[in-house]
Design brief:
It is built from 3 helices and no strands. With 83 residues, it is mostly helical. The chain has one domain.
Length: 83
């Protein structure tokens, strides 16, 4: 594989990891471990806590959206629960 093609592949992989929820969670959990070892300042711990809360909220919203879609598929669009 030519070097330029490998570089493009690595760039795509890095971009996917930055947007992959599991990768984001892993990175945040690593930061949490640093917090627990006392390696982050108070401001750093607050920033990590804010990021965790934002991720949790986003995942909750996604789960609600997916649950509504599942209900729609099960019951049909004209079901009273869909209104």
């Amino acid at each position: 594989m030519p070097a330029s093609r490998q570089a493009r592949w690595r760039d795509k992989r890095k971009a996917a990891d930055r947007t992959n929820v599991d990768a984001i969670e892993r990175a945040l959990l690593q930061q949490v471990e640093r917090c627990e070892r006392g390696k982050l300042s108070d401001e750093g711990r607050t920033a990590v806590a804010d990021k965790l809360a934002d991720l949790a909220r986003d995942l909750l919203w996604r789960s609600h959206r997916l649950a509504r879609l599942a209900m729609k598929l099960r019951t049909g669009e004209d079901h009273p629960l869909q209104r």
